[in-house]
């Protein structure tokens, strides 16, 4: 049962937990790490590792999307980012990385004021497709109706609709909002949509026909939603709630399984691993991949929220560089701070707790810190 706490007369709040609050509990069985499987599948697309590169300019470029794909992961290109606004975004990426902290947000707003060019959407997605990996691109709900036809014509395999909060029932007096259910039904490609951070919101997104639901508000290390608009959801509870919505939706739909993808707030391998134990099928990573030497941000990290023209809800931060993309994902690791060898950490945790695949690992018991 959910525990509610009285905040004051007439107002109660639900007790929720962050990933730092929970720990994984070993079982009576252990395995060898090489015997476990980290593969996952969304619709017809299979991947060796349950890692998705976040659609953030500091993380995923066409080149890093290709590199992730060849490593068995999935890179998602931000189709509203610098790669679709500028023929050569590299000088601007370099400039953002070198900006003083007090000037970064304002300059980012200026740089991203350049219009999106549909021909660049096509060019970037073709570049990824020509490399022979799965092609995925992301748009915000506000831009989806403007550019989705261009994205589909470019040959995208997976279409991601990603925003701070995405609902199945947006109401507007000014314009006709995107009808997610009709939109997804009419598409020939699987759609991943989010973020959602509770049971009800996720269940309604699943009912639209989405192949996957993003849990959380994205941004993670570079999100200021809690400070600017007061919106936040502790990820451990959010993942568990959405996983429960998935189970109930399976019963409701006669067996249709929707992928639960944790998005944001997993800056180290321990948090990454715990997301699966709480019910995630895959994890969308931002800051961990921004620390790779190949990352476009060159050790700096920022997201879509930082470029909002009137109310930026994110910022640029220095995450540093810890090694190559190969080392971040697969090691070898030369420290114990959880910044490298994410897949190795997942394999080790699954082996230590005795689970052979990700589906069974979702049943792993967890504990909550005694302070709660």
Automatic annotation (TrEMBL):
- Record keywords: NAD, Oxidoreductase
SMART domains xrefs: IMPDH
A Gene Ontology biological process noted in the UniProt record is: GTP biosynthetic process
Which Gene3D superfamilies does the UniProt record give? Aldolase class I (3.20.20.70)
Q: Which domain of life is it from?
A: Bacteria
The chain positions of domain IMP dehydrogenase/GMP reductase read 17-301
One GO MF term: IMP dehydrogenase activity
Q: Which family does it belong to?
A: Belongs to the IMPDH/GMPR family.
Name of the protein in question: GuaB3 family IMP dehydrogenase-related protein
The scientific name of the source species is Bifidobacterium adolescentis
């Amino acid at each position: 049962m959910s525990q509610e706490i009285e905040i004051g007369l007439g107002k109660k709040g639900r007790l929720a937990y962050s990933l730092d609050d929970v720990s994984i509990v070993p079982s009576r069985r252990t395995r060898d790490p090489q015997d476990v499987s980290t593969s996952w599948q969304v619709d017809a697309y299979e991947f060796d590792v349950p890692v998705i590169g976040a659609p953030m300019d500091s993380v995923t470029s066409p080149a890093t999307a290709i590199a992730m794909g060849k490593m068995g992961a999935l890179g998602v290109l931000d189709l509203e980012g610098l790669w679709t606004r500028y023929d050569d975004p590299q000088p601007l990426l370099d400039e953002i990385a070198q900006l003083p902290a007090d000037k970064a947000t304002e300059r980012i707003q200026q740089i991203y004021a350049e219009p999106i060019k549909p021909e660049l959407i096509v060019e970037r997605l073709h570049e990824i497709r020509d490399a022979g990996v799965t092609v995925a691109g992301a748009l915000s709900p506000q831009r989806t109706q403007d550019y989705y036809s261009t994205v589909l014509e470019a040959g995208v395999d997976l279409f991601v609709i990603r925003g701070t909060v995405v609902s199945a029932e947006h109401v507007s007096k000014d314009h006709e909002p995107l009808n997610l259910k009709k939109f997804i039904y009419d598409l020939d490609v699987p759609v991943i949509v989010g973020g959602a951070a509770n049971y009800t919101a996720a269940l309604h997104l699943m009912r639209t026909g989405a192949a996957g639901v993003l849990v959380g508000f994205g941004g993670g290390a570079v999100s200021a939603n809690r400070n600017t608009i007061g919106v936040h959801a502790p990820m451990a509870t959010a993942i568990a709630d959405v996983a429960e919505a998935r189970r109930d939706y399976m019963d409701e739909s006669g067996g249709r399984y929707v992928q639960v993808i944790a998005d944001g707030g997993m800056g180290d391998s321990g948090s990454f691993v715990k997301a699966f134990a709480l019910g995630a099928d895959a994890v969308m990573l931002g800051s961990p991949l921004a620390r790779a030497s190949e990352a476009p941000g060159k050790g700096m990290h920022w997201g879509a929220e930082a470029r909002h023209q009137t109310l930026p809800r994110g910022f640029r931060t220095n995450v540093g560089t810890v090694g190559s993309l190969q080392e971040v994902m697969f090691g070898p690791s030369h420290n114990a701070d959880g910044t490298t060898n994410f897949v190795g950490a997942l394999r080790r945790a699954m082996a230590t707790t005795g689970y052979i695949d990700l589906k069974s690992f979702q049943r792993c018991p967890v504990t909550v810190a005694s302070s709660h």
